[in-house]
UniProtKB/TrEMBL annotation:
Residues 73-112 are annotated as: Disordered. This is Uncharacterized protein. It comes from Auxenochlorella protothecoides (Green microalga). The lineage of its organism: Eukaryota, Viridiplantae, Chlorophyta, core chlorophytes, Trebouxiophyceae. Residues 1-20 form the signal peptide. Keywords: Signal.
Amino acid sequence: MNFKAFVFLVLLSTAATVPARELKGVPGRKLAQASANAVAQAIASGNGAAFANAAAQATASGETLSIANANASANASSNGGSANAAAQANASSNGSGSASASSQANAFAGGR
């Protein structure tokens, strides 16, 4: 049986930046750092679909710059694959918070 080649590529890149907020009357500020990383990978062969989900969240307290990055990619031949990634970073006061998430899904038709 012949399979029609179907290639689906999704690339999602999200970057969020939260500016630093000053705290008045707080001497000797110290840095607090929070980081979270999540990676999900799904691979399917044959006529199946592959799904991958990744989520990362980081929270820091202190006067901060907070950065969140999310990357999602899906590669499919035949019946397709999908990937979702979400990253969130929240920062306040004297710290550094960063979050990154990546998810990848690959689907292959085993085909004849």
